[in-house]
Design brief:
Blueprint (H helix, E strand, L loop, with lengths): L4 H9 L7 H19 L5 H22 L4
Helix pairs in contact: 1-3, 2-3
Length: 70
């Protein structure tokens, strides 16, 4: 799922801006799930590791969609 952000990041960096809402929501979602996995009494590592890429790629996609880099 998160690999699909890479072409959008590249497109955003080349000047074709995408919609920033979806990556922002994905970033928030992954952050909440990661926090949940870490805050459980018995850490839920599969949830944490599955959502960490979404935090970084969602943030990168959102930032490149909002700000002009070209």
């Amino acid at each position: 799922m998160y690999v699909s952000y890479i072409p959008q990041i590249i497109s955003n960096l080349s000047g074709s801006k995408g919609n920033p809402i979806q990556p922002l929501v994905a970033f928030i979602n992954c952050t909440i799930w990661t926090a949940y996995g870490l805050l459980k009494k018995e850490k839920d590592w599969p949830i944490v590791w599955a959502n960490i890429p979404g935090i970084f790629l969602g943030a990168a996609t959102f930032i490149t969609a909002v700000f002009s880099f070209s």
